[in-house]
Amino acid sequence: MMKKISGFLMVALLVSGMLVGCTSKSALENEKKDKELKVGFSLSTLNNPFFVSLRDGAQKEAKQKGAELIVADAQDDTAKQASDVEDLIQKKVDILLINPTDSKAVAAAIRSANKAKIPVITVDRATEGGKVLSHIASDNVEGGKMAGKYMLDQLGDKGKVIELEGIPGTTAARDRGQGFHKALQGHNKVKILASQPANFERAKGLSVMENLLQREKDVQAVFAHNDEMALGALEAIRAAKKEIMVVGFDATEDAVKAVKKGTLSATIAQKPEEIGKQAVDISMRASKGEKVKEFYPVSLKLVTKK
Amino acid sequence: MHREMKARDLRVSWLQKMGPLAGLLLIIILLSTISHDFLSMSNIFNVLRQISINALLAFGMTLVILTGGIDLSVGSILALSGVLTAGMMGMGIEPWLASLIGIIAGAVMGSINGLLITKGRVAPFIATLATMSLFRGLTLVYSEGRPIISDDYSFVIMGQGYFLEIPIPVIWILICFFVLGFILKNTPFGRHIYALGGNEEAALLAGIRTVGVKVAVYTLSGIFAALAGIILTARLSSAQPTMGTGYELSAIAAVVLGGTSLTGGKGWITGTLIGAMIIGVLDNGLNLLNVSSFYQQVVKGAVILIAVLLDRSQKT
């Protein structure tokens, strides 16, 4: 009995202590940062190096420009993201940056921000509902073009190539493919023998490439809409004992290793820090009343052995 | 008693048997006239090697469906067994032992399904829907969401090697095919599977240990899925935590295309192999013909529908 009571007292003490601590701290902050812009950033996950770099980029920019950045990690949980956004609205942020865990599920959260009259900017992934001021993400079209240009360079402007497409109907597949085709346009000595879907999967990349190699004995290069398919295609090429250049997209850990080893010719990397930096930069410009564009594409970079 | 039941339930009419085969032959003839590369020896082996994963899953699925059940967790079992095997090898364990551990893991997962369905009285659809998520989650936990590389030569040949010019995965499916065919036709266990799917109460009254048969069937499905996972890992030289996602649907499609009834009690393993071939040949042919990605899905859906409708019209 005594134990129980003392335990209860301990908890009560702890809780009240925490409450006091919190209130005094936030009161202080409110006084100090009255003039600073308060930016809320709801991230899909921090359990992925990509988003950690994205946050770091945003934090750096906020520090430099003198804005307060409040980051919430949804841990890839759509429900948690919804409550994260609610919390940020309660904290009266001036502007909301949202990196959706899911394009559809996030719409409700964005609508509640709309209701609270807090402008929303989506980052990396777009939303399928609610009103947003702007969207910031990697320029997949530009990335596809970079891959195409690199390939033209390596091929010396002539050769036969195969394209492995992502899941039909996804923006990434559409944009990367579009950029790639744009780059190859007008180069008449480069021929695309086949464009086939392998659904962004390694196993499918392997089997589709196996199938295509049955038909095409003379291929010089492959462009895959992501690294997984590129690495699958490499397995098929190795098994067929052929020498074919493969270019991927995303610069995943495995792919960068393969580039260093020389099996994968190149891959396209996003710049997460840059995305985070731009997100904060655009929030600040928007809050000053500057007109902002609907979409800000962030550039990518080519990763090769050299 | 058992024998009479077998005679009634095993009856897959001659026409029904010819349906899937005729469909396969039709697709093959069609594709070989349009594409010159289709009927080459190397492409035939290529297709057989590619269907090995789906065929193994579909073999296990056939047993499960024959008892009137379903196993949605096969894709997840494939993935968990694959990453476990690759992970064990990464820790320096011999490839054969790591593979054995993977197979045992598959058997354990399958028996969990079986126990949930029999002792736990959960409907197969729900039980395996839950374990599908559970095993996939464990796969992600174990692999930390990252691919595990496994390029040990003696392991990789299981998926990439040849034996007397025949791809080793093809040998695996042939062995499994003959063993299963024998079990289903010539052993009491095989007859019990048909009896159970035909009429569970009658089977129980006839003294068949239905719980034991069901658990065994789901365990076998887990073992086949694990074997598929190991072969896929060997083929890719790495285990992906996301591999096998959606494979349960292809496996079910192969079983149904082969003429096995989804309500249980009726079907045959040869039909399933033919069903898996239909799907494999179709995938291969669409690639060879460079059909656009949007139309591919239309064609696949249409072929499955036509095949099943043809099967229907023969039965009535």
From TrEMBL, chain A:
Gene3D superfamilies on file: 3.40.50.2300
Segments forming domain Periplasmic binding protein: 39-291
GO cellular component, one term: cell envelope
CDD domains referenced in this protein's UniProt entry, alphabetically: PBP1_ribose_binding
GO molecular function: carbohydrate binding
Keywords: Signal
Signal peptide start-end: 1-27
Subcellular location: Cell envelope
Family label: Belongs to the bacterial solute-binding protein 2 family.
Protein name stated in the entry: Ribose-binding protein
Organism: Marininema mesophilum
UniProtKB/TrEMBL annotation, chain B:
Keywords: Cell membrane, Membrane, Transmembrane, Transmembrane helix
Stretches that traverse the bilayer: 51-84, 96-116, 122-142, 162-184, 215-237, 249-282
CDD domains on file: TM_PBP1_transp_AraH_like
Name assigned to this protein: Ribose ABC transporter membrane protein
Cross-referenced InterPro entries: ABC_transp_permease
Annotated Gene Ontology cellular component terms: plasma membrane
GO MF terms held by the record: transmembrane transporter activity
Species this protein is from: Marininema mesophilum
Transmembrane listed as a keyword: yes
Keyword check for Mitochondrion: no
Pfam families, alphabetized: BPD_transp_2 (PF02653)
Membrane topology field: Multi-pass membrane protein
Subcellular locations according to the entry: Cell membrane
